[in-house]
Amino acid sequence: MKEVGKLAVLGLTALGLALAGPQDNSLVIGASQEPRVLAGDFLSIISNQAIKSEIEGYLFAPFIGFNADSQNFPVLATEVPTQQNGRLRVTDIGGGKKRLEMDLTIRPDARWSDGKPITTEDVQFYFEVGKAKGMPVLNPDYWERVSLKVKDARNFTVTFEPAYYYDTYGGTYGSPIGYAPKHIMGPEWEKVKAAARGLDPDKDAEKLNELYRNFFLKFSTPQALNRGAMVYSGAFKLKRWVPGNSIEMERNPNFPIKPEGGESKYVQKVVYRFIQNTNSLLVAVLGGSIDATSSVALTFDQGRSRQLTSRAPGRFDIWFVPGAIWEHIDINKFENCQTVRDLGLNDVRTRRALLHALNREGLVKAFFDGLQPVAHTWIAPVNPLFNPNVRKYEFDLKKAEALLAEMGWRKGPDGILQRTVGGRTVRFEIEFVTTAGNAIRERTQQFFAEDLKKIGIAVKINNAPSAVVFADEYIQRASECKWTGLFEFAWVSNLAEDGSLFQYKNLNTGAIMVPTKENNYQGQNIGGWRNDEFDRLTSQGVLEFDEAKRKQLFWRAQEIWAEELPALPLYFRANPYVVRKGLVNYVASAYAGGYGYPGWNAWEIGWESRGAVKKWDQAKYALSVK
C-alpha cells in the first residue's frame, strides 16, 4: 500500500496536476494544534492560543491591518489615521506622558456574515464587555488607558491616556481597536450584567470569572458555532467544526474587499486539518492531502528533513520565516508551593544553575543545524528593541554544580541531589511540562533531562495536549501549584513590546500582572517573578515616543531580566512553512497581521491556475529550502 501511494503521488507530479490546485478551489491547511474555542471568545478569556488567533484571521477583519512589511493599511476602516490627514492627534499631558486620539470611520459596506451592518454599536459593545468589572482580561493595562467616544453609526474616536508608542499599530481582530456583534451577543450580555450587578470584583472574583467564562463559551465552542451561534466579519465564515479533526470555512460574500479579478478566482473554502502528532502531519503533507502548513505545524527539523526536501521540487516550496516566536521554559516561583520551596526555584542561583546545565547550543545544532539562534532574553532579534549585549549563560556543568552546592545540595546514594529543608530530606526531582504530541518539544525534554541528570537533577515529565495545558485553569494557576516546576512553550510577540510578560505591576495603571485568585487570574507573568526596577523601566518605556530613549530603557530592562532569569530562554523560532506550488499570497513575515501568521490577507489567497494574482512574494521575508 505504501508503494502504491508513493507512485500515485509521483505520477500526479509528473503529469503537472500538483500545480493545478484543488478542483474545488479550496485550501487545506495542516496544523498540529486545535483551538479550544473560537470567535465568541473575542477577549481571549477562555484561550490565548496562537492557533486560535491564526484561524480568526480568516474569520474576522481588523479596522486597521498590518501587512507583511509591518505597515498599517485600512481593512474595515476607510483610511489609516495619521497626523497628516488629521485623524491622529498627540497631546502632551505632563509627566512625560501623552494623550493619543484616533478618529476612525467604518466602511459603509462593512457587514457581518448575516448581512447586518458593522456599526459603532458593535465597537461600544466590545468596549463595554472589556471594561466590565472584574473581567479577567490578559491585558488589563489596555482597558485602563482606553476610552471611546461615538459620533454616529460609522464614526468614532478612541483615546489612549496615557498613550503608548505602539497604540497606532494595526493588526489582528480586536487589536488595538476591536468590535463584537452586539445584535448576536448583546441579549445574553444583558443577562450577565444583571447577574453581576451585586457582585464585588474583589470579594466575588470567582463568581464573576465563572459568569464571564460561561458567557463567552455560549458563542465559541464547537457545538455553539456549529449551531450558528456566531457571525463573522472576515473573508471567510465558519461552516463546520469537527472536534479533533478539522474546521471548514467558506467564503463570506458580505466581506467588502474584493481581490483583483474578482473573488471567484481566489480560494473559496479553507479547511484546517488538525493532526496533533507532527510526524503524522508530515506524512499527510507528503501524501498530498495538505496544501500548506500552519504557523503551528511541523517542527523546524521536519521542515528540513530529507524525507520532505527530496519530495519538494515541483510540488512544494519550503520556507523558513525568521520570527518573534520565543521558545522558553517558564518556572514556578510561588513560594506557597511546597515544591518551589523545597527546590529553591525562587532563588536566582537555582535558575542560573539550571540554565548553565542546559546545552542549548548543542540543542539548536543537533535539532536545527544551528539556524535558530539561542535566546538570551525574551525580545526577538528581529525587534528593534533587542539588546544583544546581555549576560549569557554558556553550557557549563561545573558552574551549575557549584551554584547548587552553595545551596546545600549534595548527591545522594542514587546520584540524585538532596538537601535538608525544614528538617526533611528532599530530592531534586523537578516536574517538566510541555504540549503532548509536539515531537520537537518532547525530544527537547529528553535532551535536557540527560543534561540535568549529569548534575544530579531528576526530571518528571508531565505532558498534556495543548488544549489542556493552555487552558486558563492550568497555565494561569501556578500560584495554586497546578504546575510546580518547568513549563516549556512559546510566546508569540509583536512589535508592540511592553515587557508585560514579566511585569509584576504596571506602574501606569496599577494593574497586577501576575495571575492569582486575588486579581481573577489576569496577566501573563505566570511564574510570579517580581523586580521593581524592571517594572519601572518597562512602564516608562511604553510611554516614550523617542525611539533612542525607548531603546535605552528596554535595553536596561533586558539586562536585569538576564541577570534574574525569571524564565529560561531557549531559542527564537524560524517557523517552517510548506506551501504547494501555485498557491499565491499565503505569506508570513515576522510581524504580518501583528503576530506573523499567514492569513492576514485571507481574501487574496488563491491558486494561480484559477486566475489569482500574486501580490506578495514569500521570498522577500524568508529563506527557502530548494
Automatic annotation (TrEMBL):
Q: Which GO terms describe its molecular function?
A: peptide transmembrane transporter activity
The chain positions of domain Solute-binding protein family read: 102-478
Record keywords:
Signal, Transport
Record carries keyword Signal: yes
- Cite a GO CC annotation: ATP-binding cassette (ABC) transporter complex
Q: Name one GO biological process term.
A: peptide transport
Membership in a protein family: Belongs to the bacterial solute-binding protein 5 family.
What is the protein name for this chain?
A: Diguanylate phosphodiesterase
Organism encoding this protein? Thermus scotoductus
